[in-house]
Amino acid sequence: MSEFQLDPKFAIADEQSLRSLFEATHALAIQKFQSALGEHAQAFIRRSPFLCLGTQSPDGRADVSPRGDPPGFVQILDARTLAIPDRPGNNRLDSLSNIIANPSVALLFIIPGFDDTLRVNGRASLTTDPAILESMRVNNRVPTLAIIVRVGEVFMHCAKAFRRSHLWDPNHFQDRTEMPSLIKIILEETSVAPADDEMRKIDDGLEEDYKRTLY
């Protein structure tokens, strides 16, 4: 596949050109921005078992990381402060390193079955405060650290994206077996995947690792 080149005739390079393509923002879209977590935003967060965490490195490299746990895993310390447990992962530490270098973060909270989402922008820091970590204990294990987010902006996203994607509609669910396993994808993209029998053993090992190191 040849490399795509953007035709400069159609490139949008300034905000005036961008806004000329769209109607003006309606009042409700402007009004929805809040500087603290109101009653409904807090209720949404307590229901949510999943969020996406957006961070950025000092040189502008963007990153987004999924975070999931039982509903309510993100603690509301006060109306402008959240605490997110950092559960075991691949130890690349991309998000955590980015936060140390650039504390600006964005969170997108998702609730299964809800087409609306909640977005929170703020500034993050990392803590190993034993009292906070102990309150995040699951399966008798505490996280190594927690991400503390000082809230700057809060707003709800409408349902259009989720309705267009049919994300929660079982009639649109796809068969995972139609694509290779995670490890096979990585191996095929970076080196060479082993034969099928050996690949099955590796995949089985990953499933065992999930059970052993989920927390």
TrEMBL record:
Pfam families, sorted: PNPOx_N
Name the UniProt record assigns to this protein: Pyridoxamine 5'-phosphate oxidase family protein
InterPro entries reported in the protein's UniProt record: Pyridox_Oxase_FMN-dep, Pyridox_Oxase_N, Split_barrel_FMN-bd
NCBIfam families: PPOX_FMN_DR2398 (TIGR04025)
Lineage: Bacteria, Pseudomonadati, Pseudomonadota, Alphaproteobacteria, Hyphomicrobiales
Ranges of residues in domain Pyridoxamine 5'-phosphate oxidase N-terminal: 38-139
